[in-house]
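Fold sample X.
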Amino acid sequence: MNKIMLIGNLGKDPDMSYSDGGMAITKFSLAVSRRAGKSKSGEKTEPVTDWFNITAFGNQAEICNTYLRKGNKVFIEGRLQPRPYTTQDGRQGVSLDVVLNEMEMLTPKDKQQGSGTDTYLRGEEDPLGDLEDHPF
């Protein structure tokens, strides 16, 4: 089974394009914070942020492009898809992208569409609180 579930904040506004066949394709980056544990002295360490490239197709792509903005908190369910690439110096690599199956907007409506939703990315308090405090 190839399934990944993420909760995070958009790192930039979505970018939508169309395939040669006319299918909508939207791409955006998602910042997901996680606790790195405790230091050797037992103090909490700063959260670590992992970045994921998300790709949506069809109707989901159009919805993401219409409603999501930089800083919005979203739940993403999808699958990992390897994408081979070659660097400018000729080295081969593989990037793991997330192909979106389901998306749920978690940012409250009054905080969406240019209402200061990038506060999380600026290091300010997240209006939904710490994910560690939620029961799921």
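Fold sample Y, listed below.
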Amino acid sequence: MDHRTPRYWKSPFARFVRSYGVESLAAQLDIRSSAIYHWIRGATTPRPAHATIIQRLARESGVKLTFDQIYEHSRDLRADGDDSWATSFSDNADPRELIRARRGNVAPL
């Protein structure tokens, strides 16, 4: 899967993540890089402690990044109607299908 979908990488937060490097940022935050891709897709947002570290790392890199910009990224994606991160399934769907679909291994029902 291509994690570089252009619309996800337009915000100041996403541009900082891309310039800093997902793997480097994950190492600094002691988290998995997949968590950062979830943030970029707008599926989740950074915890406040991580946002504080991200803001400090940005400042050390010469980038001014506010908390609003960090959290606006997800809000803007959701406001644009981006629901590609959410997959709807019938009530009796096998939970394993949901997991595989979220990983991109099967087409949504």
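Sample Y note: The chain has one domain: 6-82.
Also: DSSP finds six helices and no strands in the chain.
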